[in-house]
């Protein structure tokens, strides 16, 4: 008797899906035969809106591209405008930017802890890690004024200087987080259920991984040592001392280990930044924003966010409005071509875990 | 038996009091604001002590949080999910995008006024609203339920033609394919 | 590495923004063969982005393929121009599989036709019946005024604090006085 495939919609309203997107699955029994991703539920046409605003107003829209991690987007906008305009950023501004980026990376990985374990059924990790992530958001609120959308890094530097006593608070939070990371290890990585459910699941084949356009922890979980911070150093990363963790195996377990090591490395980087921070100017003033004309040219700038490489292509034609701003999200290909090619053969219950492990973030795919 | 007006009023008051202390929130993050729901529901700001917990399907949910902007594609799904929920049901508009379109007021794909398409009970403003603001908004919803004024579902059924006409204006092909209101 | 590229493509230009950036402009018919040669023989294995710009005054669309070489650490931009009246170009799906997604989006947002592209029609927009929205002759504010409504009461753009204090009889606090009109 031949079996027929059923169509299931892992739809927009689903407790296990990362953001507002849909995956259409054809299944026989419990095994997936084919998958098709459907996006478009969050399309706001950012780039069209930015053509109607001037260069400074565009920066308020930038942080809303990717909701969990908004700082790399501001950074890449600021650096692209500086590249076209030819402005320099003072040293202190660069160090503050690195500190903000690394704090955002820790917050993203803590949120990933919650999502990945929630998809496997371990809800306690979500309660712990989102509660700890709130301490980092408190730091952001004192520095920039907002918890989620900071609007802090603009072309020329940062918006305001560090307040008094801020670095002590950062160091205390980092000490607390280091102690908590041991608890996370005991609960999650030493847990035999987590190991059995993640080892050997969601394997990304290594042969044509670079040609598929895979970036970030997915690439490092396959054994390839590639990171924008060492390939094309930006800000002050060439003066800092850190490692890029890699793992072999290319399944969910390997990527989880890579992300765990990245949190440790980020804590190490922030401590060095606080030691080496120079004093001086933090902002290189730009002219009156209502009349700021950027000379004609284009630039493509990349940054390493918690989920991979974010690229930004900006074109100017010599007026007060930008001609074109085009963002390449980190998970742009992970969610569509890569997911559709690795899902056949897996179980339905693992789809949510695989999507969390690839780092799909729906708002930045369709902007 | 006890069918006179006073007994009905007492029964209604007790029902509303019980409903207000056990509200199940539908697990649907429609926009930006979904990122502040998890801090509200977990250990630091703990909305579970007020009775809020997550529900997986629309048949088991009481309130739907429209967190932020809605695109035209999502409006069709949200209306369908809303019509699948059982009465009594409430809608909370989260963020400035539901009030007047917010930052995306000139985008061709996002709607500007939410209450033309769905009946809204409480608005929480902000971009993003803080978890304390969310808790304040949800407490206001509890208060409205206890007073007996949370009748969004009845308003929807009374003015169904007007709501459907507004929905058809942005999604002309969808209404022709959708079945009627008998889910 | 830069010298090698210049030997093969003498018209490649070196712009000094980042120090490791090269620009190359090719005809649209030559795009698949140039990209295949760059990927297989010169080490540009990573396709970072396919960007698209609408130059309506010149009557052309521009596509920029941005390549990265992981071993030599060089970025290469390949620019091509396509006529706006009849936009057709060949697809490069077989060189990089991820190009499928980029081309679906460009087809939907700009209306360029990629010969040989196999993909479902709708990607981001559903039931869209106007011109492709990222063209410069599509006015998004006019579309919004036609289809959606704005919240009444803000047409005269009054200052919020002063209006509230007039209506309710409360004083504006001192710290806010310098921000209100």
Please summarize the sheet with the most strands of chain B.
3 strands, parallel
Largest sheet of chain C: 4 strands, mixed
**Helix-residue proportion of chain B:** 40-55%
Taking all Cα atoms into account, the compactness measure Rg of chain C is: 25 Å
Regions of chain C with pLDDT < 50 over 5+ consecutive residues?
none
What pattern of helices and strands is seen along the backbone of chain B? HEHEEHEHEHHHH
Q: What integer is the average pLDDT of chain C?
A: 80
**Total helix count of chain B?**
8
Global mean pLDDT of chain B: 85
Shape annotation of chain C: elongated
Largest interface: A-C, 38 and 34 residues
Write the layout of secondary structure elements.
The complex is a heterotrimer of chains A (367), B (183) and C (181).
Chain A: E1 6-10, E2 22-28, E3 31-38, H1 46-50, H2 58-62, H3 71-85, H4 91-120, H5 123-144, E4 153-154, E5 157-158, H6 166-189, H7 192-198, H8 217-220, H9 228-231, H10 252-276, E6 297-305, E7 308-316, E8 324-328, H11 334-342, H12 351-358, H13 362-366
Antiparallel strand pairs in A: 1-2, 2-3, 4-5, 6-7, 7-8
Chain B: H1 5-20, E1 24-26, H2 37-41, E2 53-55, E3 63-67, H3 72-84, E4 90-94, H4 97-100, E5 122-124, H5 131-147, H6 152-158, H7 160-170, H8 172-177
Parallel strand pairs in B: 1-2, 3-4, 4-5
Chain C: H1 2-8, E1 21-25, H2 31-41, E2 46-55, E3 60-69, E4 74-83, E5 88-90, H3 99-109, E6 113-115, H4 140-147, H5 160-168, H6 174-177
Parallel strand pairs in C: 1-4, 5-6
Antiparallel strand pairs in C: 2-3, 3-4
